[in-house]
Amino acid sequence: MKFARLGAFENEKPAVMVSDTEAVFVDHLIKDWNRSELENGAIAKVQAADLNSSCKVSGEKRSIAKILIDEARTANLKQGKKALIIAKFSTINNQASCDNHLKIYSDYKLRMKLTGDFQYDIKSKF
């Protein structure tokens, strides 16, 4: 996702670039791309799934969460045979026509792929 601020100088609005020549304004979701907004979930608000006129999610959204794991936890992962992953999802209400609390329907899905990018240091006894 590429962030942008578009508009007249000192009156810019936050936007997301969808191509090299197209942008979508997101000022109805956040005030600006600033530290305060980012710390308060601006990216999650912008990435939330779009709702149709019936206030039901109309398409998939993809999110990537990077988690750094220290050496001790890496050692635990190496020894383990199974991992328990706890995840949550939500839909942020971006439409005035919808109730504040949105329903989670039985056909909603949460797909997850867990991958790792590891760097091992191998110490030789030679």
Total E-strand runs: 3
In quaternary terms, these chains amount to single chain
The level of helicity is 10-25%
Q: Strand pairing plus helix content: what structural class? A: alpha+beta
Coarse shape? extended
Which strand order does the major sheet show? 1-2-3
Largest sheet: 3 strands, antiparallel
Question: Concise description?
Answer:
By secondary structure, the protein is of the alpha+beta class. The protein is 16% helix and 10% strand.
Provide keyphrases for this structure.
3 strands; three-stranded antiparallel beta sheet; about 130 residues; alpha+beta; about 10% strand
Tell me about this structure.
The protein has 126 residues and is of the alpha+beta class. The chain has a domain of 78 residues. It has three helices and three strands. The longest helix has 9 residues. The protein is extended and about 65 Å long.
List the helices and strands and how they pair.
Blueprint: E1 2-6, E2 13-17, E3 23-25, H1 35-39, H2 42-47, H3 71-79
Antiparallel strand pairs: 1-2, 2-3
